[in-house]
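Q&A FORM
Asked by: J.P.
Topic: structure of DUF1774-domain-containing protein

PROVIDED:
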Amino acid sequence: MASFNPFARRETHSANSLNTYRVLVPLTWALVVVVGIYHSLHSPDDTKKGKKLWKQANKHNTPFSQNTTVTGAFWIVLLLSQLSYVWHLFSKNDVLVTAAANVATHFILNNLFLTAWILLWTRNHFWGAEIILIAHLVNQTVTYWRHRGLPAFVHLPAVAGPYAWTLTALFWNGAVAVHSHNLPGRIVANIFIWVILAIGLFDIVLREDYILGYCLSWLTLSLALRQVAIKIIALQWIFAFTVFAVFLVVSLYISTTKYTGRDSLFRRVAHPESVDREREPLLNEGVRSLGHTLRIGLGEGPRRRDNENESMEIGEICNAGFVLA
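REPLIED BY: S.T.
REPLY: Here is the structure written out as tokens.
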């Protein structure tokens, strides 16, 4: 069944599958870049009320709006990191190729969802864009939990980065769709911002995923900066800075434990090799004891008993001679 599932995780991939990924992955990545750049510079020609990508964001001030400069920088870094991911599909190292190919189908779907969202967002089809983001989040969640232990060069561009963006964009786009710029909308947003924190912390702590943590830190900082600019007398920017600080501190802590070889409680983790070296003297001693036991059981035991019997016979003869004398 897995052979018919393009989303399954595999130990190896056929040549046809790899060739397909090597065509579709860079092609869909280029599609996102071209569509994104075009709609960042031009308004849609097929609708009168359409807006440029980032102008649309600045037009609708919501409790989940982000700073377009900070978020734009996030996307530049993410797209450049995805070039590294694309390049590793052509690597001569089979391990790297397999790791990249395992998430290639999800990455292609991610690019198609993102392109569709840009087209709908710039044309004011916010509810359609929200449906796309929901499907996009489902895809990213499945990718995140199905493909664990990926190298950083795969996890950041293909999983963590898009996942963090989709999670925050879902609330941003949804706030625009429901016109959440009035007082009731802001009160609801004051509650829902903690949903981002809860989901993010659950993933970061359970998976010890500091890469996702840094991505969410970047985007929640963008959210906080924009909320300060929108309305200084409000709770949303305070909450946003709090969420950003929590993500950042937890990510720094987890990355520190990773690089110092400690667990989440900052206890040093014994590596398998060091454990084996510690057990090696005990194993050698056990082998020697076992060998000694086998020698006694198979050979030395009977010979020792024969020697003892011979000694007893000689002793009896000597005693008999002494008595006769």
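FOLLOW-UP: The radius of gyration is 33 Å.
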